[in-house]
Design goal:
- InterPro entries: HATPase_C_sf, HATPase_dom.
- This is Anti-sigma regulatory factor.
- It comes from Rossellomorea vietnamensis.
- The protein is an alpha+beta fold and 133 residues long.
- The chain has a single domain (2-131), classed as Histidine kinase-like ATPase, C-terminal domain (Heat Shock Protein 90).
- 39% of the residues lie in helices and 31% in strands.
- The protein is built from four helices and five strands; from the N terminus they run βααββααββ.
- It has helices at residues 12-29, 33-54, 86-89, 103-110; strands spanning 2-9, 57-65, 70-77, 113-119, 123-131.
- Strands 1-2-3-5-4 form a five-stranded antiparallel beta sheet, covered by helices on one side.
- A hairpin with a 4-residue loop joins strand 2 and strand 3.
- The two termini are 18 Å apart.
- 27% of the residues are buried.
């Protein structure tokens, strides 16, 4: 796994920076325009959540390779208060901010791999992969 970039998210402009980085890397790796848009959407959602719920965090982008596949790994981490009910937050329609409640469930449906862990001591960690087709 090759690290492509680490983007610190501390204000709104950092969300745009993360989107630009991931767009360039997804294009460079050969993702279709549609998949580039999906990957940008995922990074935007994860970075926005870092900013809104933890006030800061980081997005780390990796070129990820298995024996037969190449993809992009997106890792989002914060040291915020954590998510009290992970099962609930993954339900479509559930929101603590008054939004549509489609954010994290949408990220999970877009990406090929998705994992999340969260605690009040360590914050939240989200790990996703989109494979090149």
């Amino acid at each position: 796994m090759e690290e492509l970039a680490t983007i610190l998210i501390k204000d709104l402009k950092d969300i745009a920076t993360a989107r630009t980085f991931v767009r360039n890397f997804a294009k460079e790796l050969g993702f279709s325009t549609l998949d580039q848009t999906r990957i940008i959407t995922v990074v935007s959602e994860l970075a926005r959540n870092l900013y809104l719920y933890a006030q800061h965090g980081q997005i780390i982008l990796y070129k990820h390779q298995s024996l037969s596949q190449t993809g992009i790994r997106i890792y989002a981490a914060d040291s915020g208060p954590g998510i009290a009910d992970l099962q609930k937050v993954m339900e479509i329609g559930y929101s603590t901010s008054g939004g549509l409640g489609a954010g994290l469930p949408g990220v999970k449906s877009i990406m090929d791999e998705f994992s999340i862990s969260s605690s009040s001591e360590e914050g939240t960690r989200i790990n996703t992969v989109k494979w090149l087709r």
